[in-house]
Amino acid sequence: MLKINETKPKVGFIGGTREDILDDLDFATKNKFDYYEISSEGVNYSLKPKFIKQIQKIIKGNNISLILHIPYFLPIASLIPEISNAALKFVKKEILLASKLGAKKITIHSSDKEVPRIKTAIEKNIKMLIKNLKEVVIFGEKYGIKIGLENSWTPERICKTAEELLSITNFVKGLGVIFDTGHANAIGLDCVKYFKKVRNRVINVHIHDNNGKYDQHNVIGEGNINFKALLKECKNSKYYGPFILEVFPHKNVLKCRERFLNIWNQI
Q: Whole-model pTM?
């Protein structure tokens, strides 16, 4: 009987724009990636039925799993009801799109940038985020789709620390965590310690490197993140993916995967 290597990591990449989905899937097929995360960038959000069928055919024929990335700037936590309600409506449309595509996971952000940096406003902002995420998660569950909240990358935003993320997930039953290595490192947080705290809620890990000051989306080794220690912790925690390489263009995706697998296979 053939023994399956259950410790083999599941690796994918995120696209540049939604206009490049077919090119990205061609790249994913030729290079045998396990996952493809559809970008939040681009204007073509409501994909046409014919296009959706093309995508479905490709992923089924090549065993590629899809993740949908909702626009990071979507103001789902806005304190202005008309704005947050419109954002919530858009997220539900994205969930329906994910269902049609066959995606089982969705990445979402807190997107609270317009909120004044005073304590009372932040508290209200968090309450709005929790309220809307509860509705989003319930809606996603109807279609078998898991929602994950990604950690923020600038000091003025909420949901940047592990404690902040966990506090949100504690209030929103069924909400997962998308751990972004570059975002954590860009604001001076230790990626290994971060992962240890959120590992029980993690449903996706975004992989990219930086210098600890800016969100540069560099290839592994072109920054100061200790990926050897991080991936060792992932292995110890029995987390084998998805690992989504968030680097550009395609040649850097291949370079990043090579370095990722070299580290993984040595630990």
A: 0.95
